[in-house]
């Protein structure tokens, strides 16, 4: 079973890896975007860990809802509302249970991802974060490590795609050949899940 | 890339402190990143709120004042502001007559303003929205996030702002803003990329002897790269790209806009070529504005925006405006 | 260096055509290179004529209009105009009340304006002259051509222009202009060199990680090169260089001026630092202007100008002005 | 004896060498000036030859006075009034004789150079055109070729000097180590004199 502490560790691990990889995320956002994805997420997840320390919600749902709200309030851009919605809706779906099973989490995470696709309108193959998140949640049944691998493969697989959503879509065919920054940060998020689990 | 900054993290806050010092006619909330007309809310009048990533100055903060915006929300550089800012701005300027959000069509801006609208309506503030999407370099189709909002933002903010100042109701101010957007088309070119403070180096490589056609205002590459062209050739390309997409029967407002690092001397010369091409294509010009209005940090290049105007829109364009970036009639 | 131009030879003429199209309120004589207020000569009023090399836009052509210049003469890029232009301008704007030449202190400008003054006086036009020399980076001694004229030109043109508009006689307008110059000091820094159309490449090499302190507005290197500094450090250096040379007891006008390629976002942030330093040094600020006013083509960098003002000079500064580059009160 | 045709040839030869050397003059004006000396003189001397063809004055004095006036009307900058005054005053000093001796010319040229020093206030050693012109006129007694050599040496000798006049003086000690563009163009002017003489 996963408790509030697990989800706090997830957020802390995400913040750490986003901090480590911020320059790479920004560099990926440079040829096909506006060169801010790394600094956006760094700002957001630093705020998330700070607020989690201060408010210390004691349920899994409370942790993720607060984290999502904080991302919405501090990130801006496309990724702020999208990642914010992902976590907030996942958190809401978890309700106020003090512990949740891995299956509960997988179902809630899928709800969160669906909220992202509703909000942003992206379908699989549009070269967005969805291309890492969906394979990850599909693989969650096989454990966090499998989800991590699926997310990473999903991120890499965005390279040959032509973007249809977000800024990269303005480039038309010139977006082909570059890995999507948002899919890359989604892979970090999922990897942090495995890390929080000690995998 | 050298910049006249302290550290990248404080660029926006530093700029807001500097704006506050230079413009006593504005209330600048540095911590919450909201720039408001000192006399807001103006009793009985619709308020206009806009915002977007920083790096496009004078847009939007430089357009706050009588006859234009009631408030602006600057985000991080090239990053849409967050809903909290927009909500705070709306609350500060709403007199009860409602608030019009002017939103450039970028995924981030749209999502954040939509969230803010929901929150504001929860607080009893009436919200309407105009989405600006004037950039013909982007095809508006299922395969893109739709056209970008660029130079036409200035026309929408000025003309809808004048309508609001006259006391027109929210629905009419919104309709006017939409009409201005529908009547407007833009096309931009870059002679160099720009450098964001966070990245510290140019967002793309543009070799000497080449230019990018169809760029936006966020340092993204354009649709196409070509060998360098003359000012006259660029004017033809840009105007024709616009006229492929609109056939003005009324006279147009012309905005010849600098991306930030192109000298005014060159912009005026470019304007001469734009006017030459418009005349050759039979397009009548009502008014022309030349300068750095919707910029892209230190990018070299320019954009052309045309906005078709009838007598009423022209009257609203000519109406008094008093902001840091645009000022006439008062 | 790519530029938005046709060919280097027509840059100034092209820009004048573009100005003419954008500003119906100006009479632009493209062939003879004179920009004149449409309503000139204004009966009974002293006229102000300025000019200098092109590449500093909006200076001077952008400052022609009610409350400021009567006419401007743009030379080739960074090259003083010729006496013929100044003579033509003086003849076009003189109402009989005389003409004040506002001349930046460069050998070329001084010599050409002096020749024009002789010719104008031969034609019966009364001429007075204000020489602007505000740049503290240059020592005013036998070993130099004297201090350069930079940012203070804007203050002189605005304030003397307001005095002329009020109907003050030539001697008083001249005295006011001189007083403004004496009360003003400037200091500029460059983060990059600029490229003139004729040369097509940067006028000097400035490696990454270094800046030039004490530059003028013609792409000349400064007095000193140093490792890159923060905005706050530059503000301290510039303000202290100025205050080494003047001890304002009255409040000052502050001009935080961009050299052309520095984003407004950075200029506002730099202004915040300038204001911080002024407060720390006990200097009171009456008004602040931030923007690209006295530029150096596509140079990145900024200058600070302070002008000490008493109540009368401040009143004249606040007086209405209606030009392409500076506008308030009307 | 030197007739109007000789002085016309002088101007034409100057225009041609200024045209050839324009980029070098501008390059010299770049590190210690504002990178326009070459284009300034090219514009000016092109106008001079054009006007001489059209108006065809028939005295030496007429040719130089007209050339000087034309430089003043088309060059601008520091060099326009200075070179314009040099030629105009030399021309005036030659009066309306239809032919002049080399000695007459040398005396008139000295008058022209004195007018330059009066107007611009430059003394020898200030790193200006004067540093090429004065040695040249001093050497004129030994013929045009000697004057050319003296002017060229004078121009080269400006390199170690610190500028005290014109734009280069703003640089203080940083002006040391660069050859003065105006002295260099003066050497071209004097060399053209030798060329007009067939030396
Ligand atoms: N409509 C969308 N749906 C899902 N993800 C999107 C959408 N638009 C953009 N993204 C994701 O957001 C990422 C960019 O985030 P970021 O750079 O922070 O925002 P912005 O594009 O506003 O600068 C993209 O790489 C992409 O993965
Ligand atoms: N006061 C002066 N007296 C004599 N020659 C001068 C003086 N000032 C400048 N010069 C000459 O003029 C040259 C520069 O000419 P130019 O570049 O055409 O004008 P500007 O300096 O106005 O750009 C210098 O190299 C110098 O030789
Ligand atoms: Mg981005
Ligand atoms: Mg962004
Ligand atoms: Mg010059
Ligand atoms: Mg020069």
From TrEMBL, chains A, D:
GO molecular function, one term: kinase activity
Gene3D superfamilies assigned to the protein according to its UniProt record, in alphabetical order: 1.25.40.340
SUPFAM superfamilies with a match to the protein in the record: DhaL-like
Entry keyword Transferase: yes
Keyword Kinase: yes
Source taxon at top rank: Bacteria
PROSITE patterns to which the protein is assigned, alphabetical: DHAL
Keywords: Kinase, Transferase
SMART domains, alphabetized: Dak2 (SM01120)
Pfam family name, one: Dak2
Domain DhaL per the UniProt entry, residue ranges: 5-195
Name of the protein this chain belongs to: Dihydroxyacetone kinase subunit DhaL
Source species of the chain: Streptomyces doudnae
Automatic annotation (TrEMBL), chains B, C:
Keyword Nucleotide-binding in record: no
Reactions mediated catalytically: dihydroxyacetone + phosphoenolpyruvate = dihydroxyacetone phosphate + pyruvate
Superkingdom as given in the UniProt entry: Bacteria
Domain DhaK: 7-328
MF term (GO), any: phosphoenolpyruvate-glycerone phosphotransferase activity
EC number(s) given by UniProt: 2.7.1.121
Associated pathway: Polyol metabolism; glycerol degradation
Regions crossing the membrane: none
Keywords associated with the record: Glycerol metabolism, Kinase, Transferase
GO biological process, one term: glycerol metabolic process
Self-association state and partner proteins as the record states: Homodimer. The dihydroxyacetone kinase complex is composed of a homodimer of DhaM, a homodimer of DhaK and the subunit DhaL.
Identification of the protein by name: phosphoenolpyruvate--glycerone phosphotransferase
Species annotation: Streptomyces doudnae
């Amino acid at each position: 079973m996963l408790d509030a502490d697990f989800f706090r560790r997830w957020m802390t691990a995400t913040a750490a890896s986003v901090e480590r990889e911020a320059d790479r995320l920004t560099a990926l956002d440079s040829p096909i975007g506006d060169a801010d994805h790394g600094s956006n997420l760094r700002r957001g997840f630093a705020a998330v860990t700070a607020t989690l320390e201060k408010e210390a919600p004691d349920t899994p749902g409370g942790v993720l809802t607060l984290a999502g709200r904080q991302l919405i309030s501090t990130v801006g851009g496309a990724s702020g509302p999208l990642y914010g919605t992902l976590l907030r809706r996942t958190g809401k779906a978890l309700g106020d249970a003090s512990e949740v099973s891995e299956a509960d989490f997988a179902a809630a995470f899928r709800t969160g991802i669906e909220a992202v696709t509703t909000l942003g309108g992206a379908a699989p193959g549009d070269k967005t974060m969805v291309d890492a998140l969906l394979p990850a949640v599909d693989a969650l049944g096989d454990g966090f490590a499998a989800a991590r691998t699926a997310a990473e493969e999903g991120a890499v697989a965005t390279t040959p795609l032509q973007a249809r959503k977000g800024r990269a879509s303005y480039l038309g065919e010139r977006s082909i050949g570059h890995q999507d920054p948002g899919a890359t940060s989604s892979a970090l998020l999922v990897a942090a899940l495995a890390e929080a689990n000690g995998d | 890339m050298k910049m006249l900054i302290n550290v990248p993290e404080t660029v926006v806050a530093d700029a807001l402190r500097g704006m506050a010092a230079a413009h006593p006619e504005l209330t600048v909330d540095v911590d919450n990143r909201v720039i408001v007309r000192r006399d807001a809310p103006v009793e009985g009048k619709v308020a206009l709120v806009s915002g977007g990533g920083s790096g496009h100055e004078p847009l939007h903060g430089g357009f706050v004042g009588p006859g234009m915006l009631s408030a602006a929300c600057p985000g991080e550089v090239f990053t849409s502001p967050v809903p909290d800012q927009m909500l705070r701005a709306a609350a500060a300027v709403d007199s009860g007559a409602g608030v019009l959000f002017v939103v450039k069509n970028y995924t981030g801006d749209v999502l954040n303003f939509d969230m803010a609208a929901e929150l504001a309506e929860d607080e009893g503030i009436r919200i309407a929205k105009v989405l600006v999407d004037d950039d013909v370099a982007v095809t508006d189709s299922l395969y893109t996030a739709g056209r970008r909002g660029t130079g036409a933002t200035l026309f929408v903010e000025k003309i809808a702002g004048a309508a609001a100042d006259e006391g027109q109701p929210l629905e009419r101010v919104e309709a006017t803003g939409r009409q201005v957007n529908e009547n407007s088309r833009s096309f931009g070119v870059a002679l160099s990329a720009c450098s964001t403070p966070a990245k510290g180096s140019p967002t793309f490589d543009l070799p000497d002897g080449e230019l990018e056609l169809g760029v936006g205002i966020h340092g993204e590459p354009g649709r196409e790269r070509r060998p360098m062209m003359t000012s006259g050739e660029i004017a033809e390309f840009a105007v024709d790209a616009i006229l492929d997409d609109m056939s003005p029967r009324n006279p147009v407002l012309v905005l010849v806009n600098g991306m930030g690092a192109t000298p005014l001397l060159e912009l005026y010369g470019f304007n001469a070529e734009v006017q030459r091409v418009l005349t050759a294509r039979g397009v009548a010009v009502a008014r022309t504005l030349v300068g750095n209005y919707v910029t892209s940090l230190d990018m070299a290049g320019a954009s052309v925006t045309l906005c078709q105007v009838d007598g009423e829109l022209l009257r609203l364009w000519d109406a008094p405006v008093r902001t840091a970036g645009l000022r006439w009639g008062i």
